[in-house]
Write a structure and sequence with these properties.
CATH architecture of the largest domain: 2-Layer Sandwich
Helix content: 25-40%
Number of domains: 2
Low-confidence stretches: 221-233
Pfam families: TsaD
Keywords: Cytoplasm, tRNA processing
Domain Gcp-like: 29-145
InterPro entries: ATPase_NBD, Gcp-like_dom, T6A_TsaB
Number of helices: 6
Order of helices and strands: EEEHEHEHEEEEHEEHH
Subcellular location: Cytoplasm
Radius of gyration: 17 Å
CATH superfamily of the largest domain: ATPase, nucleotide binding domain
Shape: globular
CATH class of the largest domain: Alpha Beta
CATH topology of the largest domain: Nucleotidyltransferase, domain 5
Largest sheet: 6 strands, mixed
Number of strands: 11
Length: 233
């Protein structure tokens, strides 16, 4: 199968082409300029893969959680491309992609669950736990919580004793009490991992129409406040 994947969830912008297991990726760490960079990166990745957009089977994108602005940029771009090419979309958890990338970066983590954590601001984190046997599904419900709450949930859970931590959300001092063996605070989300996870979902029949795609914010009250502010302007 051929799948085009995009991500602008956090402080990086990346595009990847999955072509029957072979992956071509463009990745850049950029806090801003995602909107300007994304489409040229799509063109370059497709050119490197010697494919046209019409030749891909589907598009994959990080559905969140993550930066509100970042999620909207990637999702709106994928929707536009999917509409133009009449292609389905495969939504992938940003936390699952973070765990998959950390496991790829650290071969010694291959057999253990990875606890992904992204900074949700306001003193909270987005987090979830992903095993190599079911990389798209969190072993605990994905959540946005105070670091202390997350530590409590991890300690009270019946997860395996050997856990690893990945992602920039692990910078909070309270998370030093979490039952993880090692943590990588520099792990980032890559479109190549979204592509691989998206390919697994696609093979299991998971896809949707572009108009059905919506970001997963987790922090519903903040989303509601933003919508209310926009409506009042």
């Amino acid at each position: 199968m051929k799948l085009l994947a995009l991500d602008t969830t956090s402080g990086a912008c990346s595009v990847a082409l999955y072509d029957d297991g072979r992956i071509t990726e463009q990745f850049v760490e950029a806090e801003r300029d995602h909107t300007r960079r994304l489409l040229p990166m799509v063109d370059e990745v497709l050119a490197q893969g010697k494919l046209e957009l019409a030749q891909v089977d589907a598009l994959a994108v990080s559905r969140g959680p993550g930066s509100f602005t970042g999620l909207r940029i990637a999702i709106s771009c994928v929707q536009g491309l999917a509409f133009a090419a009449d292609k389905p979309v495969v939504p992938v958890s940003s936390l699952a992609a973070l765990a998959a990338g950390a496991r790829r970066k650290h071969p010694e983590w291959q057999q253990a669950p990875v606890v992904s954590a992204l900074d949700a601001r306001m003193g909270q984190i987005y987090w979830g736990v992903y095993s190599p046997k079911a990389p798209n599904c969190s072993l605990l419900p994905e959540a946005v919580q105070d670091p202390e709450q997350a530590v409590h949930v991890l300690r009270e859970s019946d997860l395996p004793r050997e856990l690893y931590g990945a992602g920039p959300g692990w910078h909070y001092p309270a998370l030093e009490q979490a039952p993880v063996k090692v943590r990588d605070t520099e792990a980032l989300i890559h479109a190549r991992d979204i592509a691989e996870l998206g390919a697994l979902l696609w093979q299991n029949g998971v896809s949707m129409r572009a108009e059905e795609l919506e970001p997963l914010y987790l922090r519903d009250e903040i989303t509601w406040q933003k919508r209310q502010k926009i409506r009042s302007q």
